[in-house]
Amino acid sequence: MKSISRVAFAAALMAGAAGIAVSPPAIAQKKQDEQKAPALKLSKEVQVAAGAAQKALAAKDYATAATQLTTAQGVVKSDDDRYIVAALQLQLEAQKIQEARAANQQVSDQGLKAPLETLIANPKTPAVDVAKYNFQLGVMAANAKDNVGAINYFQRAQQLGYSDPNLPLQMVKLKMDAGDVAGGTAELEKAIDAQVAAGQKPSEDLYKYAIAQTNKKRMGPQTANWIKKWVVAYPTKQNWRDGIVTYGLTQQSAVTLDKGQKVDLYRLMRSAKALADQYDYEIYAQWAYDLGLPHEAKAVIEEGRAAGKLPAGSAADLLRVANQAIASEGSLAPVEAKAKAGANGRIALNTGDAYMGMGNHAKAVELYRVALQKGGVDADVVNTHMGIALANSGDKAAAKAAFAEVKAAPRTDIASFWTLLLDNPPSA
Description:
- Helices cover 68% and strands 1% of the residues.
- It folds into 2 domains: 2-124, no CATH class; 237-423, Alpha Horseshoe (Serine Threonine Protein Phosphatase 5, Tetratricopeptide repeat).
- The chain has 22 helices and 2 strands.
- It has helices at 29-35, 44-58, 62-73, 79-102, 113-121, 127-143, 147-159, 167-177, 181-197, 204-216, 220-233, 237-248, 259-271, 278-290, 294-306, 316-329, 333-341, 346-358, 361-374, 379-393, 396-404, 411-423; strands at 2-4, 40-42.
- It is mainly α and 428 residues long.
- It has a two-stranded antiparallel ribbon with strand order 1-2.
- Helix 6 (127-143) runs antiparallel to helix 7 (147-159), helix 10 runs antiparallel to helix 11 and helix 12 runs antiparallel to helix 13 (259-271).
- The longest helix is centred in the first third of the chain and has 24 residues, at 79-102.
- It comes from Sphingomonas mucosissima.
């Protein structure tokens, strides 16, 4: 038996169409040393047939090459024999595909599958090539809409160290298309983290894709987390508004909120200067009024008009009844005294909300602390509102501390969004 160097495969094969460069059956030792690859020892019968197949491939005589490889396949005796036969079969199929595509002919790549699988299973195939061949089979499976098969091949390629800039995102899409949204978003998070670690800025579309896919599957906590990642990476006013609306202000929201929780989100948009249009201002003002906060309703309407978002005559009835309620309400001083003397913190909480609606944040914080001290109230609501008042007063550290005291969902998310806003105010 004579020696033959390992087969060198063109990297372009990874596109599924290019030819494969195969070393000749008999080669000088110097060339072997240059390639730094162990030699293959072929049986005489396989060496003869493989040499004839290689010459036929060089001449593009594919019929003869196929015949010679069939002969070689019938007389293989070792892993070395099987390796060279599979390598030449792979080259044969790859050349045929390449020529067909060059001629704009429809062609299937499935002929590559058998030799690729044979090479993967052969212990003589270098590990780096095993990784590449798994990737190639993954591409073929994906093209055939076999998402599960493609995922398995790509995972093997990754485990073997194969690196391709598109592979992580291919894995994301495959898992998403296969219905594994949790797995897909986990892959996407890894891809984004890798881009950030490499000093790159991930595309905004990646975040939007994750938000849409998780929300479609009603994965509320995951959607909320992706919205947070998005507004941190791209903190524009429009993104803050869209993220907040997607989280809790539409029929297809990530979570279902009550009116009070929704008003806290509108307060968030107001602080971010992200209230966008007539609807935003009017619904916010109406809901604030519904919660017994006429001062806040009036302030929102007047801000909307000043910003040109509310036409002069819009929300006129709401403004009228808000002014009437404010006149009837009078001074909060007597209510404040009653709150401080109360058996529980409910009056203090309501009075604090009224002061916050008036823009008197210092008084609001004072009453919220009374409410917490007396108890009998939802501490998460109180801490959320105290954090909002502190944030709007400019005390970021104290606001973050209050938000950190919120313990239960969905208010934990609301508090988290407020904390993110403090650190990531809209850039435009």
